[in-house]
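Researcher: Quick test of sequence recovery. Tokens follow.
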């Protein structure tokens, strides 16, 4: 049976116990957090500290990553991870602590201080004084703001913590905060010692009072039951109430219910009732005489032994007269009902059937904090001890002050009805920290291996594409040489064959048109326009089309309309011949994307909400991505400028059809971006990707693979979407910078 509140052991956790913190801060990437593309992007430490100080001054109850996600700046991987670790640590710890909501809310704000310290010091942010103070918080599980003067002490400490951390931010040093945590830990230890002292005194006092209460109530119940329905002389009633009841109470208190003194006193009580009530004793006159002759001596003997003093003759005078009248068979002996005596005793017969709970029941319920709901109010009480004499629970508060008693059976009933609920078992801050660091360190190690594999695959793909490009250029050069020789041969043949001059001139003109058409076809790049002059080869009435991509390995070119749809394919040689035959004509060089990129300004913060609120990341590393991309995805912040509908010449650019979309993550084969409007699935759209400030942009051709709305409230589908998420495939088309893109992604993977 627990007699004292369980005191958590002094914290043995040290900052050096969390060496894997550096690995987590520097290398892990949690999905949908605002990481930079390159791992070496670094925001100055004083800027980060000033931002955390601003959030602390506001006493915000919002997570750190939610706040920095709304900022326009770019933060380093270490700083984003410091914010994530501080958020996850405080949320998990306070959720499992069982603290009052007000205490949990104020403690949760230290996430801003931890985010600053983690970025600046790494694992050293968890100083010995901080760990000891936070582990010692388990002592305050019973705290509530409405507990009166005893609650004021912790409220003052929380106010002092606010001042100390504010000074630490102002002085750019953690010394003030560490000193405060040290003082707080010392105060908690002193409070624990004082509470233990109060509990020791309280237990001794209440155990004695419980024995006295048990003896008094049990004696009253015993006498009341013996007198129930009897008629006795007035002297008998008076003697039993005023003298024999106190004797039985003392015998129970000193020797217990199994003591010899109590058994003798109880037996004499039964003989007194038998002797005084004619309904019990008139049928046994001989025995009545025998008992009456011995009763006085027996009463004096038991009284002397239990009360340690002699019973006065005057006390027994009235009862002796009544016994003599009963033995003379005097029917004129006046009898009285015992109801008045029973009413004066005011007994509760339940004390005679008092049931003490088993040791198993006591161990399962004692030594714990409970929430008690009464009259729409909540109170926290501690099950300090069970008083075995009375089967009552002794309730205390967090400082060892008695709050009252409760019958154990009533406690069990209220607990089954939900009026009394046990607080959940708490977990020490250092244990929560150790578990989180272990999970994230394992995830970071796995991510590092995945990034190395993805970088190697991207480099291999870039090298293969470079070799293909070189081979294609060499083949084209050879074709030009062959065509040049052929033209020279035809020219010489035309000169030598005067009779076939007209036919030779026509053939030469045709070859010249083929050569010109080949140059035009080879010079076509994504975004260039053609017009189909021959109605016989038009598709669905589309007259003007732009080049979407070149499939170099199959010498095939894919054209689309203004919206990126209605695809039409031509073999390179077929297109050359149709241009030479004037069935198709090449227009100008298309839209200038560099000018478009410089003209379009879209905020990075659009659609960048943090989705990791349940903190399940790291628990299932090998799960397949929901958008079916098998390449490793690098969570990073970038920008894509795309044309939803392009003009047919450089002089015509509809700025409303140009969109700058924030990129959520990147891979060698594609990317995921956010758009304010829905993008057509299956469309081929030219785009310019901006990765890192100061580095060149990448002109690519994207295929919209999927597009779905992003809901603000996942539980309510009726809420309008805040935007659209689109999955895009990077097409390895000639005339684009697909090779340079793969090399940039490989470099970003290695630097992440």
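Model:
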């Amino acid at each position: 049976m627990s007699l004292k509140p369980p005191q958590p052991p002094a914290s043995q956790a040290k900052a050096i116990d969390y060496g894997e913190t550096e690995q987590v801060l520097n290398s892990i990437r949690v999905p949908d957090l605002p990481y930079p593309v390159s791992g070496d992007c670094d925001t100055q430490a004083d800027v980060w500290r000033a931002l955390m100080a601003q959030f602390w001054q506001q006493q915000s109850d919002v997570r750190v990553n939610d706040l920095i996600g709304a900022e326009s700046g770019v933060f380093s991987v270490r700083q984003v991870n410091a914010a994530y670790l501080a958020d996850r640590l405080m949320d998990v710890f306070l959720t499992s602590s069982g603290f009052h909501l007000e205490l949990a809310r104020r403690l949760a704000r230290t996430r801003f201080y931890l985010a600053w310290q983690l970025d600046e010091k790494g694992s050293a942010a968890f100083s010995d004084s901080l760990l000891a103070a936070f582990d010692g918080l388990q002592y305050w599980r019973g705290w509530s703001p409405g507990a009166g003067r005893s609650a004021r002490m912790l409220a003052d400490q929380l106010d002092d913590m606010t001042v100390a951390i504010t000074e630490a931010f102002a002085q750019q040093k953690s010394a003030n905060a560490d000193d405060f945590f040290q003082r707080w830990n010392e105060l908690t230890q002193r409070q624990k010692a004082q509470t233990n002292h109060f509990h020791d005194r309280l237990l001794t006092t209440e155990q004695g009072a419980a024995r006295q209460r048990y003896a008094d109530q049990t004696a009253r119940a015993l006498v009341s039951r013996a007198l129930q329905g009897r008629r006795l002389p007035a002297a008998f009633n008076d003697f039993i109430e005023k003298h024999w009841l106190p004797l039985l109470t003392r015998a129970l208190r000193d020797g217990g219910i199994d003591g010899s003194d109590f058994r003798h006193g109880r037996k004499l009580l039964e003989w007194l009732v038998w002797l005084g009530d004619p309904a019990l004793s008139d049928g046994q006159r001989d025995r009545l005489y025998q008992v009456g002759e011995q009763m006085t001596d027996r009463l004096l003997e038991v009284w002397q032994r239990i009360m340690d003093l002699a019973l006065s003759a005057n006390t027994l005078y009235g009862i002796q007269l009544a016994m003599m009248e009963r033995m003379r068979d005097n029917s004129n002996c006046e009898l009285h009902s015992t109801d008045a005596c029973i009413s004066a005793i005011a007994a509760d017969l339940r004390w005679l059937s008092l049931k003490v709970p088993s040791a198993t029941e006591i161990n399962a319920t004692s030594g714990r904090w409970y929430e008690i709901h009464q009259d729409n109010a909540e109170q926290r009480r501690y099950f300090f001890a069970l008083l075995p004499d009375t089967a009552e629970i002794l309730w205390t508060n967090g400082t060892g002050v008695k709050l009252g008693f409760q019958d154990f059976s009533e406690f069990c009933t209220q607990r089954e009805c939900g009026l009394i609920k046990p607080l959940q078992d708490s977990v020490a801050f250092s244990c929560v920290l150790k578990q989180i660091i272990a999970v994230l360190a394992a995830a970071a190690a796995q991510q590092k291996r995945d990034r190395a594999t993805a970088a190697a695959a991207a480099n291999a793909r870039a090298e293969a594409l470079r070799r293909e490009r070189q081979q294609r250029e060499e083949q084209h050069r050879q074709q030009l040489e062959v065509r040049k020789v052929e033209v020279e041969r035809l020219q010489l043949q035309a000169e030598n064959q005067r009779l076939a001059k007209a036919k030779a001139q026509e053939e030469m003109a045709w070859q010249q048109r083929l050569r010109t058409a080949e140059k035009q076809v080879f010079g076509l790049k994504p975004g260039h326009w053609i017009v189909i002059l021959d109605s016989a080869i038009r598709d669905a009435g589309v007259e003007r089309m732009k080049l979407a991509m070149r499939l170099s390995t199959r010498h095939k070119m894919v054209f689309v309309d203004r919206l990126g749809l209605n695809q039409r394919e031509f073999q390179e040689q077929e297109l050359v011949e149709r241009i030479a035959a004037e069935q198709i004509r090449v227009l100008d060089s298309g839209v200038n994307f560099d000018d478009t990129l410089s003209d379009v300004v879209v905020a990075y913060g659009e659609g960048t909400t943090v989705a990791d609120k349940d903190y399940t990341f790291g628990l299932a590393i090998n799960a397949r991505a929901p958008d079916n991309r098998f390449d490793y995805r690098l969570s990073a912040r970038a920008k894509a400028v795309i044309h939803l509908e392009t003009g047919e010449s450089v002089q015509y650019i509809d700025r409303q059809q140009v969109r700058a979309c924030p990129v959520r993550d990147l891979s060698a084969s594609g990317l995921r971006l956010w758009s304010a409007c829905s993008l057509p699935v299956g469309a081929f759209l030219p785009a310019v990707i901006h990765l890192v400030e100061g580095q060149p942009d990448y002109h690519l051709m994207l295929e919209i693979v999927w597009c779905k709305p992003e809901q603000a409230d996942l539980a309510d589908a009726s809420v309008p979407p805040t935007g659209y998420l689109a999955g895009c495939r990077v097409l390895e088309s000639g005339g684009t910078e697909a090779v340079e893109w793969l090399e940039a992604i490989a470099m970003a993977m290695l630097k992440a």
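The two ends are 56 Å apart (CA to CA).
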